[in-house]
Amino acid sequence: MSDASFYDDLPRVDRFELLSDARSYHSIPQDWSVGVADIKGSTQAIAQGRYKTVNMIGAAVISAQINGMGGRAFPYVFGGDGAAFAVGPSQRDGAAQALAAVQRWARVEFDMELRIALVPVRDVLAAGLAIGVARYQVSAGVDYAMFSGGGISWAEAKMKAGDYALPPAPEGTIPDLTGLSCRWSPVETRNGSIVSLVLQMADRANAKAYSDVIQNIVALTNRLDRGGHPIPDEGPVSPLLPPGVKLEAHASRRTNALWRARLRVMMQTLIGFFLFRTGLKVGDFDPKHYARAVGRNADFRKFDDGLKMTLDCDPQTLGRLEHVLKQARAEGVVKYGLFQQDRAMMTCIVPSVLTEDHVHFIDGASGGYTQAAAQIKSG
Predict the structure, then answer these.
(1) DSSP assignment, residue 325?
(2) Which of 176, 185, 247, 288 is most buried, by CB atoms within 10 Å?
(3) C-alpha atoms less than 13 angstroms from C-alpha of 336 in its C-beta half-sphere
(4) Does the predicted model carry a pTM greater than 0.70?
């Protein structure tokens, strides 16, 4: 099976609840590699109020890979303070270079240490783990990869131990982050709180019991308005001066002065503010259609060796969710972290505002996924 045909030929799953079934996943070929990245000290950075910077760097890992792939579809997942992806053998060298470039960029632009690794799938299999992938169709224009089997988590653990590290990029290396942006306002909760959940199978847990818990949680959250989607149906709000202007300037400036890049982003944002507030169409660009598509294309729930959700949740549903989680943990089936905040935020990759393939990564606006994962680590 060729590099291109494996992921291209995977069937699209359009019902999220079906992704709790192992039969929805397909084994990644053993000659592929898994790329993993995360920010060292992300919890401390979030405590310092740098949660948007953390998200931007995590999304940059994916942005650099997308641009390096030249339009070829490949599996990836956003993790809040990092990302993971898989590539075939013919793409491995380019993926390694893009990873190293983002690592240097994160250090130069933000003084943050991005840990990176590229792990052969055959080594994951040799360790007794698996990496299954599915394609979840969230809209007509976008699908996201879902991962199962424990292989991604194993690769991340190896990366944190210093294994499979990549050589640093040469000084002056700049990643291609074309399309990476963060121009929307944080989205306020409409129902009570924005809940970030990270759920994993407990050690030595029964797989059937774990699957039952997942199905229970998905069924419970499906009763929320639009399944708990934090973005309104009409889309997010375009602010006059978005908080991510400087971050986007860091991503797009390349060798230019930061102030010039910041001025350019501010001018583009002002134009966007006018169009989204007035609804004025310009050529083929319909701002109302685009804003609605942003919500449809967003990844507010996913499987990444476990279940991750960022939900707009009412108090009653939250109480029932916590009851299910606590009982499952007491029975030794799951381990989880759950973090509440009052807003969600997005980091976006937009190849073009005229196409339907723009993707939007959602996290809690106080570092929800990272905070929730930290709860698991602390026991």
Answers:
(1) H
(2) 247
(3) 29
(4) yes
pLDDT digits (tens, 9 = 90+) for 64-83: 999 999 889 999 999 999 99
Tally the C-alpha atoms within 13 A of residue 318's C-alpha that lie toward its C-beta: 17
Backbone angles phi, psi at 267, to 5 degrees: -65, -45
CA separation for the pair 46, 44 (Å, rounded)? 5
Q: Locate tokens 């292989």: which residue?
A: 151
At 361, give phi and psi (nearest 5°): -95, 125
| Closest by Cα among 297, 329, 299, 220 to 55 | 299
d(CA 379, CA 377): 5
95, 35 contact by CB (below 8 A): yes
How confident is the model over 172-228, as pLDDT tens digits? 999 999 999 988 999 999 999 999 999 999 998 999 999 999 999 999 999 999 999
Does the pLDDT at position 125 exceed 50?
Answer: yes
Strand-pairing partners, residue 187, are: 344
Q: Is 255 helix (H, G, I), strand (E, B) or coil?
A: coil
161-to-106, 116, 199 alpha-carbon distances in Å: 20, 11, 23
Task: Tell me which DSSP letter residue 305 carries.
Answer: S
Residue 215 has which token pair?
């199905």
Q: Check residue 291 and give its pLDDT.
A: 95
What is the Cα–Cα distance from 79 to 294, expressed in whole angstroms? 19
Contacts of 2 (CB under 8 A, 6+ apart): 88
